[in-house]
Each structure stands twice: as structure tokens, then as C-alpha cells.
Amino acid sequence: MKRKLYFETFGCQMNVLDSELVLSQLRAQGFEEVEDRTAADVVIFNTCSVREHAEQKVWSRLGELRETKATRPDLVIGVIGCMAEREGESIFKRFPHIDILCGPGELDKLPAMVRNACVTAPPLPGTPGEGRGEGSVSDFGFRISDFGSKEESNPQFAIDNPQFMTPNPPPAYREREKRQVALMGAAVRRSSTYETAKEDNLELLDLARSVSPGDNVRQAYVRITRGCNKFCTYCVVPFTRGPEVHRPPGNIVDEVKMLVDAGAVEVTLLGQTINHYTFDHGDGRKTTFADLLYRLHESVPHLPRLRFVTSFPRDFTDLALQAMRDCARICRYLHVPAQSGSDRILKAMNRGYTVQQYIDFIDRARAYMPDISLASDFIVGFPTETDEDFAKTVTLVKYGRFKNSFIFKYSPRPGTAAIDRFVDDVPDAVKRARNNQLLAVQGEACIENNRQMVGKTLDVMVEGESKLVSKRAAYPASKVTLGWERRRDAIIEPLQPNTQLIGRTRGDQVVCFDGDLAMKGRILDVQIIDAKNLTLFGKRV
Ligand code: SF4
Fold it and tell me: Is the overall model pTM greater than 0.70, yes or no?
């Protein structure tokens, strides 16, 4: 019988991709995903440390599972991702019922850890526990002793943790030495040269990606760089995901080809600072980000759309901009977080550029591609931010004419440099007021940009049914069937409009229009007839 797996992902696109890669391995091991946590044999949370809200959700889910675990000791609970790496084994003090802890830099070990946790799970109370325990043969056909992890135990933790100070810890909780823990800690994994990449098991996780008939891969993520070297003071990523590691270009091209053969229409390349991509082949040759863009564009001619996120404002070369300009199927969209319009605050954030350098970059991008669509991120209320600093941010938002900006109120995050270095001295009411003011300024740019689109015909990649207007009730369920098909072989059938669809342009503008849900995953010509702040409205032509 297949084991049931509940898997929940929080956070960024990188986490979404990590989950996809890990899930494909777990499915291959015989796990079946379920939507109901209470029906699962294994529950895994892939966590994010960037926003407090996402963390609170995970804490609350773990709290809820405490009772479940008390009655079902065989339930396996895993916490993976940035929270796991940041919290480390101290997480067991609050949540001793967790069985698996795995950082984002160690995910290649997760499938074995899950298997091991399943076979070493304590038996249900009152059962003989057959098939469980040291030396027994697991449901997966290997012996528990294959995966001993006693050397990972931490004596200090045992002393600190009241659960393990008692002679008889609750049976629901896994013995400490049988917990599965894989954290990067201070270890550094680098595979930016060919020789080391061959040895990197984390690379193997990406390489092992497989697509099954029925998987929806029309919009797919492909990682090109892991980690970050920037150490912005408000960010935990360099500590949880480690230093920049660049994947071999041949592996990236092969993965994109595989996805396109499986039906991908849009591939988004992922990296925390994606324009820093450089791969050293170890023989004097280097592949830069611009080289990679050209190579992908040429090697995968059947891919209609290639995107990438997130760009860092510094070190974005003219060659990379030229590649975007020259390659018709690379989307004219750049997400380049500015974070502040004040040099003083940028310095406190350790961003490594000035406002003028940021402006020079967006000017350069627009000189190469006048139709480029730019998006940014801003943090308001960073420690010591004055009204004057904030006014400079407002000026930058006005100058930037961004398609949209993701605007956040600063909150101190555990594990970051800023939490130790600065007092969170901007009152919440001020943060809120600045947040609202900046949203209003950005809103004016949004509506102005969007109005310029009215009357134009744009190609729109259909993502699904719009949440704004749903005509689901009138929609026969039997039609919501998406077959797995090769894009090149796709047969375009006449379709009847019966719902409101949502899609994106090459410039990442959101477009709503009437259509048939079976259009999902297709790129269609849509004439823009109306514009609101965040959404364009159109009709098929
Ligand atoms: S560039 Fe800065 S904000 Fe972005 S991931 Fe790296 S440290 Fe975090």
C-alpha cells in the first residue's frame, strides 16, 4: 500500500522548485500525495524565513500536530527549508514531535531521511510494532540500520531538553538519536566548477527531475544558481542557503529541453542574484549569464518564453541586456529590487550600490529595450529611516515607473545581521503610513503604465481561471481536463468562452479576459480594452 504524504510549501519560487524536485523523488519511492494532513503518514513543511507571517503558519501547524502525534506515534513530521536551517536542532525544544529536520542545502538527503524516519517510527501504542525498530526490514525493502545517524546527536541538546531529561519520554516522540537531521551549518558546498559539480549531490537532485504524464509543466522553474553571497543585513538567505553555487550550463540546457519536450511553454530561470551567474569550466572557459541566455535561446528553439528572476541591480552587464534584446523569446521583464531610495539606508542594508547606480541600471535597461517592463521591491521603516530617507524612496519609485513594486514594512527577522546590529526604531504606525503612501505612489505608476496598454494586442500566457470573476458554476466539470501534450504537437481546437481567464504578458502584466479553461497553458493574442491598477482587461482576437 502506498504511504500517504502531505507536503506544504511556503515562500519563494526557489522553495516551490525545491518542493517539486523532492516530491518527484518521494513519488518515485511510492508516496502518494494527499490534501488532508490528518490522513497522511508523513507530513512535511517546506518553510520560509523571510516573512514572519509564513513562519507563524508553520509554528501553528506544528502545534496542531502535537496532539495528532500523541495518538499516532507512527506519523512522521518533517520540517525542511530555511526555517529548519535557521532554527537548527533548537526547534526540538519547542516541538519535540518533529522527526525530520533538513536545510535547503541538504535536500538531496531528504528522500533517504524520510524512508529512514518511516521505518524507525515508534509503533502505535498497544501494537507489537512489527516491522519497526532497529534491524527490521522496512516497507521499502531495506534495513533500518542502513541509515544510522547516532553520530549526529547533540549531548548539549539532551541536557537542555526537558523531554529527554525524563527517564520515560512520551512514546509519541522519536528517540533523539533516531531523528533525521541534515543541516548545512557552517559547511560550504560549492559546485561552480565542472570538477566539483560532478561530485555535488544537490546538483543530482536537480538532474534527477522527472516529469510524468499528467504533470502540468507548462510553466516551469529551473534553478541556475543556488545561494547568495550578498549578505544584505535584513536577509537570512546567505545563512540558510549558503554561498552562490552555479550549475553547469549543459545541465541547465538539458533540463530546459526535457521540460519543453514534456510541454513547457514558459520556463523561468531562478537564482537569488541571477545575473551573477558564471560557470567556470575548469579549463580556462567561463560561461557568463549572457552566454547562458544566448545558449538557451539557440539550443531550445521550441520554448516560446524564457524568463528569469531575481536580478541584482549591480553587475548586470551590457552583454546580458543585449542578450535580452537580441533573443526574441526572452521576456522583456526585469525584477530588480531597489529596497530603498536613500544611500544611507542602502548602506545600512549592505546592498552594495547607490541610488544613482540603480538609476543608471534602469536607464541602461530602457535604452536597450524601450518596452522593458521593470518591477522592484522596497522595504519601508528600516531601522533609522527618517522622513527624509523615505522621501528619497518616494522619488525613486516615481522615477522608476515600475510595472509594480513589492512593498514591505521592515520587521526584524531572526538570523539576520540587522536584528543584532540595529534597533527596530521606526514605530509601526510610521511604517504603516509610509507603506500606504508608497503603495499609492506605485499605484499611480501602475495605472499610468497600464493605460498605455489599452488598444494594444499582446500575447498572453493563460495561467488559469481568474479569481476576480468566477463562472465556475456554469462550467461543466468534464471540460476541465488538461491532457499531457507536447506543445509542438498541440492541436488547437475551437473553444467557447465560458469563464474569465487570467494570464500574463511577456512583460508580466496580468490580463483578464473571457475564454475556456482548456486554454490554460496556451499563449493567445489578446486585445487590451480596459486597465485598472494591477490588471488589464482584454478580449481574444
Ligand atoms: S541579494 Fe540580499 S536580499 Fe537578495 S538573497 Fe542575497 S542577501 Fe538576500
Answer: yes
